[in-house]
Structure formats: structure tokens, C-alpha cells
């Protein structure tokens, strides 16, 4: 991908053609969507880094200015899950950014969406949704205001209900296949998942 594209009206470079076709194969995005993603990613970078947007990393604070994430209760988790940063700082490369947009897209499969939703809900990253994860999940969805916060008893009951419904092997946690099983039985998952992604 050495060939830097022609300057786009003087504002940074275009995506090299061979990179574009590779990204099309690896994501659920069309050529147009990839080019738009590149433009959006570049515009979030400091001016001096825009020429080399393909090798730049975008800090989490800039990613969170995106309208899709600004009001998202899982915004930090989303950055954590899609970021390949070794520092674990939630920063994203252009490819991380594309992965995120690809999973958000309408053309992504339910399997892929549910896989990422599971990782987003797995707050401690241990590969299972336990009571603590479920509690954080409910808090994210109900908001942190005093008036919307559930009482301890209500929270306990809700988590109990979720586990009874979903924990097939009765080990007290929900694993990925159990989660995907629930999702496959919920036709409205994809539309409610729009809130998450």
C-alpha cells in the first residue's frame, strides 16, 4: 500500500486503491462507506497527521466525539473492544475504526453483532457474563440518575430472571453460546442492538 492516492482537494490523501479492495473484502462496508469512514477518521486527526491517516492512531477522547458514540452508554466499552492498542487506552487505528463501523452496519450478520455485543457486555473481559457484568449492563441501560436506579432487591430479581432465562448450563454465568442462543430467539435483538452499537 505504498501508493498514496492523489490529494483530495488538498485535504489529506486518499486511500490507496489496493487497500480499498482489501477492506471491502474484510468488512461489511461498501466502497463508498469505506471512503466516507476514511474521511471521517482523517478529520478527527490533528492536521499534521492527516497525510498518513492509515498509520495514525486516534485517541479515545476524539472517537467519543462521534455522534454514534456521544450518547452511547457503552461508549468506553465499545472503544475497549474494538481498539488494538497494547496500552489498553481505547485508541484506534483506521482498521479498528473500520471494524467498529462494519459491525455497526446494517449488513453485518446477527452472529457478528451478537459476538461483539457479548464482548461489550463482558465488562471484566473474562469471557462470561457474570452477576457483576449484568449489574453494570443494567445500570448502563437504566442510566445513573437516582430516580432511574434500581433498588438492590429489584436488581437482584432482574439478574435472577436474566440468568434463569439464559444460563442453560446453570453455572451462574452466561457464556457466548448461551448469549447467542438468547439472541437467536429474540427477533427484535438487531433493532435493540442499534442502541448498543
UniProtKB/TrEMBL annotation:
Record GO terms (molecular function): calcium ion binding; magnesium ion binding
CDD domains documented for this protein: EFh (cd00051)
InterPro entries: CIBP, EF-hand-dom_pair, EF_Hand_1_Ca_BS, EF_hand_dom
All residue ranges annotated as the EF-hand domain in the record: 109-144, 154-189
PROSITE patterns linked: EF_HAND_1, EF_HAND_2
Any matching Pfam family: EF-hand_7
Keyword field: Calcium, Magnesium, Metal-binding, Repeat
UniProt name for this protein: CIB1 protein
Amino acid at each position: 500500500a505504498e501508493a498514496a492516492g492523489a490529494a483530495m482537494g488538498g485535504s489529506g490523501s486518499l486511500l490507496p486503491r489496493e487497500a480499498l479492495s482489501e477492506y471491502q473484502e474484510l468488512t461489511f462496508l461498501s466502497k463508498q462507506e469505506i471512503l466516507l469512514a476514511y474521511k471521517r477518521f482523517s478529520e478527527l486527526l490533528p492536521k499534521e497527521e492527516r497525510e498518513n491517516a492509515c498509520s495514525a492512531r486516534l485517541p479515545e477522547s476524539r472517537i467519543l466525539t462521534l455522534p454514534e458514540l456521544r450518547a452511547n452508554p457503552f461508549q468506553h466499552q465499545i472503544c475497549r473492544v474494538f481498539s488494538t492498542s497494547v496500552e489498553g487506552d481505547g485508541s484506534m487505528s483506521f482498521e479498528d475504526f473500520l471494524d467498529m463501523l462494519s459491525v455497526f452496519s446494517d449488513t453485518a450478520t446477527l452472529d457478528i453483532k451478537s459476538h461483539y455485543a457479548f464482548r461489550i457486555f463482558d465488562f471484566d473481559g473474562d469471557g462470561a457474563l457474570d452477576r457483576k457484568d449484568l449489574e453494570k449492563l443494567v445500570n448502563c441501560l437504566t442510566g445513573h440518575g437516582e430516580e432511574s436506579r434500581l433498588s438492590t432487591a429489584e436488581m437482584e430479581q432482574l439478574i435472577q430472571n436474566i440468568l434463569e432465562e439464559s444460563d442453560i448450563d446453570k453455572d451462574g454465568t452466561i457464556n457466548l453460546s448461551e448469549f447467542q442462543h438468547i439472541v437467536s430467539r429474540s427477533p427484535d435483538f438487531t433493532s435493540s442492538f442499534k442502541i448498543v452499537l
